[in-house]
Amino acid sequence: MLESHFAGRGLRAWGIRAAALLVMASGAAFAAMPAQAQPEGEPSLNEPGGKVNVDENLITELFVNDEDLNTVLQLLGVQAQKNVVTGQSVAGRVTANFYGVTFYEALEAILNVNGYGYIERGNFIYVYGLEELERIQEATRTRRSELVKLNYVSAQDVQIFVEPMLSEKGSITVSPETAPFSLPGDVPTGADSFAAGSTVIVTDYDEEVDAILEMIQLIDTRPAQVLVESTILQTSLNEANAFGIDFSIVGDLDFSEFTGSGGPLSVVPSLIGGQGGTLVGGTDTPIATPDDGKGGGVTSTVGNTAGPATFRAGIVSGDFAVFMRMLDEVTDVTILSSPKLLTLNRQPARVLVGRKIGYLSSTTTETSTTQSVQFLDTGTQLYFRPFISNDGFIRMELKPQVSDAEIREVTAVGGSAITIPDEVTNELTTNVMVRDGQTIVLGGLFRESTTVTRRQIPFLGDIPILGHAFRGNDDESIRQEIVFMVKPTVVNDQILLDEADRALATIDNARTGIRKGLLPWSRTKLTAIYNVEAQELIAQGDYKKALFKIQQSLSMNPAQPNVIAMRENLVGQESSWNDSYLDEIISGELESLFDEKKNNSVSNLIPAKVQGARPELPPTYQGAQTTETAENSQEFEGEGADSSIDSGEFADFPIENDGSDDE
Q1: Which of 22, 218, 239, 605 could form a Cys-Cys staple with 569, CB 3.0–4.6 A?
Q2: What SS3 state is found at 172?
Q3: 3-class SS string, 511-579
Q4: Which candidate, 145, 100, 99, 94, places its Cα nearest to that of 116?
Q5: Which residues neighbour 63 within 8 Å (Cβ) at sequence distance 6 or greater?
Q6: What is the reported pLDDT for 19?
């Protein structure tokens, strides 16, 4: 083993500096001390050789004044019983007083102030100059390579972090980057691409390699996950009010002449066109108006009585017709969207709940025109990327969006009609800081539009009170508001497991509820009833009736692997039939049902090995797979339950004689 010691290096660098300061301070102090103040028993500074003492623990006391370096090293070696070897180039003078220091601290201090260092090899200590010592150490250093398997961080990121830590002769080799996700639909993929995890190979000297491995261990940590819950609240209030009166007066005409052309309010337009209409056998038949060349009419349509209304009234009497319209309509719409998405720290994510609107896109060149189908995403969308900090905050890059599309046709350059989607959107793009688990309002939009429409007959509509008969009023007020809120939460494994359990329970309840709605004579419901009854009988220890219920269930639906496994466990004999070779060969689901002992399920029923004896089963028994509860079902009883089973065939479990056999 080779150990080198020189200025600024070694594990005892602090001892070197301390001892050097002590040497200088001691020399100055002794130089200034009067001769009569020297402690009794210590050698005189002018005495050749001074005093050097090293005990069995290598604790050294040294008092020298302007002594030759080689002499002092020789005295230290003799006292410590160390083999110190110096070269011809080693020379210098030493003045020092050491109290209670180790041998190596004294040696380093003496050599350091004279510009030397040492190497300990075996039982010898070799003293060299610092430059020569560095050359020796560089020549004896060896490099090694370490292969590191990364779990989370990419090899390229590790390379960026550790390259500055390499020495001039060090190197780092990383595995190639993962190719972009591509999965052609007609051929397999992969070829000879690198399929293992990210790998880094570091080659350098021991000190650098150890530091790099420690750095990789610090940065290759599992990233946190963020659950982002976004709430988008949309409200819309539309209010419409209208009031209007229309009238029509004719002379030398009859309103029946305008039945097929629009009714009494179409008198004047029919006169302008010279053509009215009537009903002949239920069919609109055009007629000349007026047929005798005489007639007249006055019509007012300022009330727009044909428009939307919640109340209409009309009177037709002789040559006069009047109609009234009133409208009072309020539409209140509230839309609450709450998309949720889980993603890794610093990774972008997107959720879309809506529709992809397809439209044709044309590309025209000098020689051809190519059409392709493009899609526009509409609905509720959320784009985000989280950045988790150590102080409990999360920086969020966010873009919530609510949009809709309106398709319209336009004429292209060549004269053909193409479709173009117009996107009607409410969106927000921001970058915010949010505390973990806190909900904040990102922003919103409030828009109000009020439209007031007045139509009237000139002059007559301005008459107070009576003018309402010659006016029409339409008022419309539209209020729209949208609010964006977001709540990011850093989740751990336990939270994810709890949410998964709740989701599975919800799905299971939904499946159970759907099955409960089946007709009483459906095969699924009847087999579920038999299975539940069998489980209850097994829990009670009545294996004979339980086996009968199982056989009834399998007779209706043989494709029930769990029930088949239950029967095999009761009978102690394995069936050769299986509905899925995949489960039998690869998954081994039937075997695992009896290996796993949890939830007091059917897998706890272990067939007895002794003929005619079976251990007692748990007092409670619940099926692992059947969740329905048999409601309004009657337990099967009667002679068939006993006579259908030969007790000699199932002698590996006890058959209690409850008197049913005698019946």
Answers
A1: 605
A2: strand
A3: HHHHHHCCCCCCHHHHHHHHHHHHHHHHHHCCHHHHHHHHHHHHHHCCCCHHHHHHHHHHHCCCCCCCC
A4: 94
A5: 42, 43, 45, 50, 51, 52, 96, 97, 98
A6: 44
